[in-house]
Amino acid sequence: MKRIASPIEQIKEHYPIVVIGSGYGGAIAASRLSRAGQQVCLLERGKEILPGEYPDKLISAAEHMQVHTDSGHEGSATGMFDFHIHPGISVLVGCGLGGTSLINANISIKPEERVFEDACWPEEIRNEFKDQNSLLNKGFALAMDMLKANPLPDNIQLAKLKSLQVSAEANGQKFHRLNMNVNFNYNGKNHVGVEQAPCNLCGDCVSGCNYTSKNTVLMNYLPDAKEHGAEIFTEVSVSHLARKDGKWHVYFTPAGAGVQKLSGAQDFITAGIVIVSAGTLGSSEILLRSKEKGLPISDKTGYRFSGNGDVLGFAYNTDYAVYGTGAGHRKPDKKNAPGPCITGVIDARYQTNLNDGMIIEDAAVPGAISKLLPAALALESRLIGKNEEKKKGFFYFLKREIRELISFLFGPRYGAIKNTQTYLVMSHDDSDGKFILKDNRLQIDWSRVGQEPVFKKVDKTLREETKALSGKYIKNPVWIKQMHHELVTVHPLGGCFMGNNIEDAVVNHKGQVFAKDTSGGVYEDLYVTDGSVIPRSLGVNPLITISAIAERCCALMARDRGWNIDYTYKQLALKGSDTRTVGIEFTETMKGFFAEGVSNNNYQSGFDKGKAANNSFEFTLTIRSEDVDDMINNLQHEARMIGTVSAPYLSDKPIQATEGVFNLFVQDPDNVNTKLMKYRMLLTTEEDNNYYFRGFKLIHHNKGLDEWPETSTLYITLFEGRDDKGKIIGQGILHIQISDFKKQMKTMKAVNALSVREAMEAELKFGKYFAKSLIEEYGGVFAPDQLYDPDQPRTKRKLRLSDPESYPIKTADGVDLLLTRYNGRKKGPVLFVHGFSGNRLTFAIDTIDPNMAEYFYEQGYDVWLFDYRLSNLLASAKKQHTVDEVALYDYPAAIDKIRSVTGASAIDVMAHCVGSISVFMALLSGLQGIRSLVSAQIASDFYPAPQVNWKAGLHVPQVLDALGIHSLTAYVDKNADWENKLFDKLLKLYAVPIAGYCNDPTCHRMTFMFGPLYEHSQLNEATHSAMIEMFSIANMRTYEQLTKMIRAHQLLSADGRDIYMSHMDRLKIPITFIHGEKNALFEPQSTQTTYEKLCKANGAHLYKRFVISGYGHNDCMYGKNTAKDVFPLILQQFEMFYK
């Protein structure tokens, strides 16, 4: 069966029609008005619980219970069994999508005609009940048809039904089978397209039908409403209504979310029409609270509450097998099945006095709680039981005692409980109860109801029924003198009762709420359509009467507005999800300031200015994911938000926050090892102005203890309009206060869980993910490494380049190299040369846009990427080489090939790091064919950073070579052995203090091999993660030669000779030097020295030098902003030839 409710976070700020409640009245209104083509939003305070999820054991039944008393509330706010315990009378109602239809017996029986002759009814209702063609009687017919009311088939014989008949016949009473909303026919799709199975007679109707057989409104009206466009939201507790500026404001809190624990804030939506159908107690409470908050409605609100004369009793341990307990978690026993909860009736209505009439029905106790019966009824039989046994004597006494013992030993399906008949009675009380609000809680004022004479008459009648079965009569255990004859009802009525005018009633015959001080006398667009409108007891199960009146109200509502309700059935493809997922929810309050006119990410300035101007901003948001597993595993880690905002600059009234999207610990694509918490939502004021809110928390490890400041600081931007494309209003900062954070932790809970265990598992999953994410950022050496997974290669962006042309070349000393060409056709050629341990991806990595190859290609250059012998993409990288060999053999081979292919007499070169060192060595050795050069980071003079100088002084390459280590590699993946993983943990201790915090072992290895190669802040996350694609092996012989140069501060041959520096005249070509200000390998003095030497030797007009602020070494090649900060400076060098 498909789920039809949507997450509350998807609710819109306004609907033409809002229905509150999903029982008979609410479900009917949603279905019929959706069929009339209207946009309907339905709000239900309970959960969506589907067949298969209802409790079938005692422990699960207990988890589904909640209790309201005069002093407070216990249990889950969405517990399906909702008990209201008050002096005089207590009430049980259902809480869930489908309302009380989920837990009632679904009996459809019309009241005695004289009930509708009572003057308490509006005249229109009194007249229509007599007219078979009236809207009211059409309502009865429509409801009976949609609910598919039918009697138990004649071929099904049940022991408890037979026992009821025995009682009726013994006392000369009328007996018949009842119409019930239970499916005995469908085995497939029903009339609205919902899959149903025939009743299996399990007897668990009132604990929720797990077999799709009971025709609750969840099987018909509600999915029908969904199919016709209604939006249904569960776990939404409506507080009150207010009328403002021609619209209804419906105030609510996500049920059980603990929003009011934080700030007292309430969410709200607006509506054109509101239909209150929250049940007798719920609707009365909503209207009473609305009245208390200023809505001018009838002073009779809350009056004429009736318990429908409900009485519960037992014929205990009779001489008849009854089989009156449900199967629970066991497989139903069809031979001795209890059948539907109620199947027949002793009809004792039509007495001389209407209010003396009653009906007595059989009942099945659900299997989930049946274990309680042996002890409970045995005790009650001794305390308050009345012996109505016909057969006396020791033998019969012993027989009954043995039956009782058998129930204790073997359970309620045997012995005394097997022979116990449960009676449900409906009669007529005087409907004189009253609902009141006290301390913002609904209470019942009707302490003496149990002393009305009718209940003594019922008690006497049930003793007679029990006598016919020769058992012990046990009355309602709380209907005793010591407990002031308290009652329990499952059929509460009244509180918002119908009548002719505001002095005598709450709503008119249409269900419209009477209004004070209005010309029309009623609110034309505020209705009540549930049991609360019934002005008196009915003396029968009330569902079909409630449904008929609701159908009538909808028909009148449509007629008054010119709408047409289509009543034909169409089996549509039902929308919704087939699966149930357990989610997580919490509520967050943040407070701060923002300033109008502040933009360009000047959040602190906005906060400071806003604080000075007292321009406060505060929100309380409920953040909810319907699927905690998806939230954890999906890279977007997305949840939804709804709530309220207080921002006096925008409005002096509470502001709706809807369409909210929240992302928890998502990777910041623009920054390394940085996570974001992102907030986006639509704000709507009561004046109908829209603003868009965008905010983020920045989670990034810096030195010091910064977990709390970062996770509690939200940087916000406000926009005009409904999205972030509008004009920026202002920016600022919000914070979580410690006191609010403590409260927030108490609001965290699992949603959609069917048991405490399931809820705890979901909460534990979320807690572990939250902690793990924080440890990744703030755990230091203990944080888990982010290891490359070779089995899950990343998705790569298609480069904006021509198809590559590959040119393999062989050097004079027999080494295979590779040139890769992207021909821009207009300018060039330009040769791009990478550094030590790298490859051509230095210039063509897809993680920045554009990369250097794309940038120059788009400028029309003939781009040539050079993988020389030190490239980790070539087999030669695994062998030992000197930089002299690169200069002597690799460049001549490459330049000759390019000149041969292109016909160019000379080429331009962009060389980085060892690529730059080697090209200087080649030129100083007499290489021809290079027209101009851009040298990045190092050239012929070496002024190393302290840690590089320190390592060179230790002769690390020579030591490693002596130990048999002939190469180092930056490559490591998740399949590494424990020695490599331990090595990486130790490297982290070395790398993080000098290179900055991250959890990438490849990055740490590169820091160990060379030094800090970049400023992490200049890289985006994708590039940082892709280092393993750009860097790998470094041979020890090259490494050794470089350390010799570092110690000598100049170019040297591999054997340590100074064979290059005396030929500066050979560098008489245009050269531009690029150097990162924060280069942690070679200090800027390195290229400054070379630049000065060349200017002195050959003239300053040939040379330029740029120090790039905020950049390090490699990040000048592939930093996230290099297309803006670096590439144009390189371009200047080459463009000089095309002006």
How would you characterize this protein structure?
The strands form nine sheets. Strands 1, 2, 12, 13, 14, 15, 25 and 26 form an eight-stranded mixed sheet that branches. It is built from 33 helices and 45 strands. It has four domains: 8-123 and 209-308 and 491-561, FAD/NAD(P)-binding domain, CATH 3.50.50; 311-481, no CATH class; 583-751, no CATH class; 805-1135, Rossmann fold, CATH 3.40.50. The protein starts with 13 loop residues before the first strand and ends with a helix. Strand 10 and strand 11 form a beta hairpin. It is an alpha+beta fold and 1139 residues long. Helices cover 29% and strands 24% of the residues. The model is unreliable at 258-263 and 703-707 (pLDDT under 50). The chain is elongated and about 130 Å long.
